[in-house]
Amino acid sequence: MFRGLMTAQAAAIAVCSILAGLLGGAPVAIAAAWGGGICLLAHAWAGFQLWLHPGNRRSERRQAGAAIRAEMGKIVIMLLLFWLTFREMPDMRSRETAAALFAGFFLTQVAGWIWLARYGDAPLAQRHTPHHDR
Predict the structure, then answer these.
(1) What are the CA-CA distances from residue 42 to residues 79, 95, 113 (Å)?
(2) Which of 129, 131, 107, 108 is closest to 119 using CA atoms?
(3) Stronger pLDDT, 71 or 59, i.e. the higher one
(4) How far from 68 is each of 5, 14, 20, 75, 112, CA to CA, in Å?
(5) Torsion 33-34-37-39 (CA) sign
(6) pLDDT band at 65, cuts 50/70/90?
(7) Lowest CB count within 10 Å: 6, 35, 54, 111, which one?
(8) How far apart are CA 54 and CA 70, in angstroms?
(9) Cα 115–121–134 angle (5° rounding)?
(10) Is the pLDDT of residue 54 over 70?
(11) How high is the mean pLDDT of the chain?
């Protein structure tokens, strides 16, 4: 499940960056890629906590706490990276690059939601993997 989510989001980053580059040039493409990257990094943290962390797979009691840590960590990572981006990279403050940054972020987020919704509709036999990394 984790690997599929990361792949869907990476594909969304690539498509969004290419389109942004064609429409607005290299700085806009980089901003779109970085916005998608923020989303991908946050989801990588959450996915690790939910599906890959060895301690969380052994105990059902830890899974609820892992879900809370995953969501809280995801929010903190997103906010911190957006704050650092706008603080340390003045080029990202222009209208075009900021729009591309947020567009890359939201399109990557939507691609993840779509992948999870489609994966959630799959029969249980297709979803189960022993290593939780599909």
Answers:
(1) 10, 24, 14
(2) 129
(3) 71
(4) 19, 30, 34, 11, 19
(5) negative
(6) confident
(7) 54
(8) 14
(9) 55
(10) no
(11) 85
The pTM (predicted TM-score) of the whole model is 0.80
Amino acid at 131: H
Token duo for residue 36: 């998608």
Contact 116/43 with Cβ under 8 angstroms?
no
- Cβ atoms 107, 36 nearer than 8 A: yes
Query: Residue with structure tokens 């998608």?
Result: 36
Q: Whole-angstrom Cα distance, residue 87 to residue 13?
A: 23
Contacts of 62 (CB under 8 A, 6+ apart): 55, 56
